[in-house]
Specification:
This is Peptidase S9 prolyl oligopeptidase catalytic domain-containing protein. Helices cover 48% and strands 11% of the residues. It has 148 residues and is mainly alpha-helical. Helix 4 links the parallel strand 2 and strand 3.
Amino acid sequence: MGSAQAPEVEALVADGAFATQWSAVGWAVPRTLRFSAHLLAWVLRLLCWVTDQILCRCTVYCFQQVEPVRTIGRIAPRPILLIHGGNDTIVDPDDAMRLYQAAHAPKELWLIPPHGAYSRVFYRQQSLYQQSPRLLRQSAQAGAIGPA
């Protein structure tokens, strides 16, 4: 969450955000590859280790360094709106709650009822997205608004 270090960012709207990169991998890989639970745990540990080794050697970061759940609290007092679809197959919807709990007021969480893949939430709930700037301003003025 680069917004934590960017004072020019006045508010944050995150749709389908992950709490950690590993939580996203742990959620998406089993659904994509359809491994058994026992094999999956072993494969995921190996995948995580290999990926981290490659990233650390070839880029400027490692997976454990990308954990929005650790930095979202530094965004306050700027308002935060977290949006997450209930049937997200890429990022665990529980990550939205983890981020919400780690954030400081003003904050708001919209958990969209299951409608399929996360990207369909925007298309089916466009009116919510169009309201988000106004609702963020209201949230900032009134304080924290609890999870939906």
